[in-house]
Design goal:
Its main location: membrane. The chain has a domain of 169 residues. The protein is 78% helix and 0% strand. It has 15 helices and no strands. Helix 1 packs antiparallel against helix 8, helix 2 runs parallel beside helix 8 and helix 4 packs antiparallel against helix 14.
């Protein structure tokens, strides 16, 4: 569900707002982990989650949109905002990329929490392989019904770069990354682990600067700093505990 919803969202949404939505999943993970496993992060951790989301907004939402929100223009002309949103998504809710991104984020959050139960019966790396295989079947069937080139026989529409991109995404973007993530999710604190996904847009911005000559504004650089502060606050207690444990051993 995560991969399918994400693909739909990416084709319909703006990069900035969509990325903020997809990377805000630690909020849902924190709520579910508290309800189901009794995990607590305390006021400082909650502040860290909110700070992380703020950093994401500064990193990814276009500056004109940010300034418009800060000036509360949407309050002075709510009808214009409503008309603007309607024009962006004339097909309704299911044509909204942001809605698909929200579904993707919630799916990933639920999967992160569920791995705790799954890992009681099977190795988390094995579980990762199975959920990709089983989850890929309906996506493959949907692709066949939609006559996608990669599965309908029109391979001439795909060049070598397309195949290399697909191979990289499959191996490193899915198998390796999800295997490592779910392995740690089966053992550590779910909220603190998921907070590390706040780093995703930072790496994207860094490599965009490095390889695509993209520039970072002062607001984006500030957003990166705020995001790091948020991650630190979420993980502050575990760091303090580690230092205390080391001190006791010494």
């Amino acid at each position: 569900m995560f991969q399918g919803f994400l693909a739909q969202g990416l084709s319909r949404t703006s990069a900035g707002l969509g990325s903020v939505i997809i990377d805000s999943q630690p909020l849902t993970v924190a709520l579910l982990a508290a309800l189901l496993f009794g995990e607590t992060i305390g006021p400082l951790g909650a502040l860290g989650l909110a700070t992380g989301v703020l950093g994401l907004c500064l990193l990814e939402v276009p500056e004109d949109t940010l300034f418009s929100l800060l000036r509360f223009e949407w309050l002075s002309a709510p009808s214009e905002v409503s008309q603007s949103l309607s024009s962006l998504n004339p097909g309704g809710l299911w044509e909204s990329g942001e809605w698909w991104m929200l579904l993707a984020a919630q799916s990933m959050a639920v999967g992160t929490v569920m791995v705790r139960w799954v890992s009681k019966y099977v190795d988390p790396v094995v579980a990762t392989g199975w959920h990709m295989l089983l989850g890929g079947i309906p996506l493959l069937l949907l692709s066949v019904s939609a006559h996608e080139p990669a599965v309908s026989g029109h391979f001439s529409d795909l060049d070598s770069h397309d195949f290399l991109a697909l191979l990289y995404t499959s191996v490193f973007g899915c198998a390796v990354s999800y295997g490592v993530f779910f392995y740690n999710a089966s053992r550590g604190n779910l909220t603190k682990l998921s907070s590390l996904t706040f780093l995703t847009p930072m790496f994207a911005a860094f490599f965009g600067y490095l390889y695509l000559d993209e520039t970072l504004t002062q607001i984006q650089l500030g957003g990166a700093a705020v995001t790091l502060v948020g991650i630190y606050l979420v993980n502050f207690r575990s760091l303090a505990d580690s230092l205390a444990s080391t001190k006791d051993e010494l």
